[in-house]
């Protein structure tokens, strides 16, 4: 029996000292648990993705230094540690350490260069796929993308006798990603006839959330173990492999099969953590993303505008769950067009969540703005300018409090609004993190219902869930005055943004041609706004920013026939 420990850790990019401490702690626990092999995720020592830090020679020097300092902590066990190394170029490495000594450095061969990945910008690919030994079994090591490739390094290692294929990964979360990984890994296990142990990173890093969900598959492609998602975990798995020597394999620098530290204690019962539903998964991703963004950037408290609408309500609920209600402050900023119901709904929400609520009316400030701008605006009709001034006043007030007290402002716009520019630069877009920036409006409602189901009371008031969406910047205003209903808008946005379909193709799917053309025009025209927006947590396959990079100056237009 061979025991493996998958160490699902949450490092911070560039914090080598803390990462080394975490690796040492998890290794100690794995060793005490009788593990033959402990595995850490891709670039666990440096954090992922380090981006242009990799171009700093001293960053790579520190990576090597901390790896060397870590070696004495990796005795009595075999460990696989992900880190960047300089070796005839910058390498994405999986370092195999046996009893405190480096026995092999595997270099990632297939470098992803799509979506959020830019690895060809930084790394030089490896070319070797060695088979190693630990505890009397032969295993191969690969890194993330390597195992997604048909006839890749893992397949080569299996053909050379590897009974266990270890893949260390930093695979970011988006809706549907868990099913994709499961299909790929299960299929790879069936094709190679080997056990597959997949160790994924966990935690938030800027816009990205790594969800963990490390897994082990049998040669039949059956899932035999799965760790928790969205939290640190050490998954211990007994794999039914007998110790034996494999003839014809070069044993130079291999870990000897008679290592004295491969003794087992009592067998470990397989653990398969339940897979969360879509709403739970997304909610946990947003919660973890916010918590880590705050913690890793040194913020203790968050502040946001509470309008009494669904978007700010969901943002407040996530913030309270991530940070604790004592670390979240909402600000109600009613104007002359704000309804009493909206103000009351914001108060009820804050009370339900147990968070602080400040009230700062903006009518007087708005009057001052109009007085000062009067000579310039004279004889001009009231239009969206006056609406946007209200949003910008609110943005200024929130940023002023943030500046004075050091609290992080959370902007509350969703993906549907951000897509079509139904938001105000330097107004409701102002902030340090746009928490639900990648969450479509229809999903916002689903998440709100999910969150209400977690408590005995309805945290987000029913009135908020049922009211018609409105920016409430002019009397009687409704979102549908300017946009199609969200149950029509979101599917079109998904096809245009996520699927990159043309307006012609979308219209052929049964959508009104004029509506599709109008939506696409709004998306294209508002790239300049999105470029100036705060970062937001990625939860869809194609988020704005690193995923979707469009030119601001752009005259390409797809015309309908």
Describe, in plain words, how this protein is organized in 3D.
- The structure is a single chain.
- This protein has two domains: 2-243, Nitrilase/N-carbamoyl-D-aminoacid amidohydrolase; 279-531, HUPs (Rossmann fold), CATH 3.40.50.620.
- 36% of the residues lie in helices and 18% in strands.
- It has helices at 16-32, 57-70, 119-122, 153-159, 177-192, 278-296, 310-323, 340-353, 363-377, 384-405, 415-420, 441-452, 462-466, 486-498, 503-508, 513-525, 527-531; strands at 2-8, 37-39, 78-86, 90-98, 101-107, 131-134, 137-143, 164-169, 195-200, 202-205, 208-211, 215-217, 223-226, 233-239, 302-305, 328-332, 356-359, 408-411, 433-434.
- Strands 5-4-3-2-1-14 form a six-stranded mixed β-sheet, covered by helices on one side.
- A hairpin with a 2-residue loop joins strand 10 and strand 11.
- It is elongated.
Number of strands: 19
**What is CATH's topology name of the largest domain?**
Rossmann fold
Total domains: 2
Structural class determined from secondary elements? alpha/beta
Instruction: Output the strand order for the largest sheet.
Output: 5-4-3-2-1-14
Quick one: CATH class of the largest domain? Alpha Beta
**Major beta-sheet overview:** 6 strands, mixed
Rounded mean pLDDT is: 92
């Amino acid at each position: 029996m061979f025991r493996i420990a998958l160490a699902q850790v949450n490092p911070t990019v560039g914090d080598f000292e803390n990462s080394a401490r975490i690796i040492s702690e998890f290794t100690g626990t794995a060793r005490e648990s009788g593990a033959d092999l402990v595995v850490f995720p891709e670039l666990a020592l440096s954090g992922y993705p380090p981006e242009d830090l990799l171009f700093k020679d001293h960053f790579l020097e520190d990576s090597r230094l901390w790896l060397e300092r870590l070696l004495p902590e990796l005795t009595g066990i075999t460990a696989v540690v992900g880190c960047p190394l300089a070796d005839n170029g910058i390498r994405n490495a999986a370092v195999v350490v046996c009893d405190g000594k480096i026995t092999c450095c595997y270099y990632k061969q297939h470098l992803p260069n799509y979506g959020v990945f830019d690895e060809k910008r930084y790394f030089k690919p490896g070319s070797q796929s060695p088979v190693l030994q630990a505890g009397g079994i032969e295993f191969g090591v690969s890194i993330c993308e390597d195992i997604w490739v048909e006839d890749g390094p893992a397949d080569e290692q299996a053909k050379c006798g590897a009974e266990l294929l270890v893949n260390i990964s930093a695979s970011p979360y988006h809706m549907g990603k868990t099913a994709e990984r499961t299909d790929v890994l299960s299929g790879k296990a069936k094709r190679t006839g080997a056990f597959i142990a997949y160790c994924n990173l966990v935690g938030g890093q800027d816009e990205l959330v790594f969800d963990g969900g490390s897994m082990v598959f049998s040669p039949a492609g059956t899932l035999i173990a799965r760790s928790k998602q969205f939290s640190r975990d050490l998954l211990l798995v007994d794999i039914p492999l007998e110790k034996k020597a494999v003839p014809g394999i070069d044993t130079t620098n291999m870990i000897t099969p008679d290592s004295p530290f491969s003794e087992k204690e009592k067998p470990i019962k397989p653990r398969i953590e339940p897979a969360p539903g879509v709403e739970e998964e997304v909610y946990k991703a947003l919660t973890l993303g916010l918590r880590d963004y705050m913690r890793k950037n040194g913020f203790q408290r968050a502040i946001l505008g509470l309008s009494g609408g669904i978007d700010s309500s969901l943002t407040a609920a996530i913030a309270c769950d991530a940070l604790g209600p004592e670390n979240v402050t909402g600000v109600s900023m009613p104007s002359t067009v704000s309804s009493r119901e909206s103000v009351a709904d914001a108060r009820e929400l804050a009370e339900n969540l147990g968070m602080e609520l400040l009230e700062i009316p903006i009518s007087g400030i708005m009057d001052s703005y109009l007085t000062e701008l009067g000579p310039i605006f004279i004889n001009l009709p009231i239009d969206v300018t006056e609406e946007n001034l209200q949003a910008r006043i609110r943005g200024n007030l929130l940023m002023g409090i943030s500046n004075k007290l050091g609290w992080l402002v959370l902007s509350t716009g969703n993906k549907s609004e951000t897509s079509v520019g139904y938001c105000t630069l330097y107004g409701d877009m102002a902030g340090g993190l746009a928490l639900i920036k990648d969450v479509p409006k229809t999903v916002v409602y689903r998440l709100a219902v999910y969150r209400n189901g977690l408590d005995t009371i309805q945290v987000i008031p029913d009135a908020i869930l049922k009211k018609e969406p409105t920016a409430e910047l002019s009397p009687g205003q409704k979102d549908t005055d300017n946009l199609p209903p969200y149950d029509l808008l979101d599917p079109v946005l998904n096809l245009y943004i996520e699927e990159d379909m043309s307006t012609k193709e979308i219209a052929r799917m049964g959508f009104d041609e004029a509506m599709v053309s109008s939506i696409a025009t709004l998306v294209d025209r508002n790239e300049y706004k999105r470029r100036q927006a705060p970062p937001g947590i990625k939860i869809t396959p194609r988020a704005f920013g690193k995923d979707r990079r469009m030119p601001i100056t752009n005259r390409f237009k797809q015309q309908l026939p």
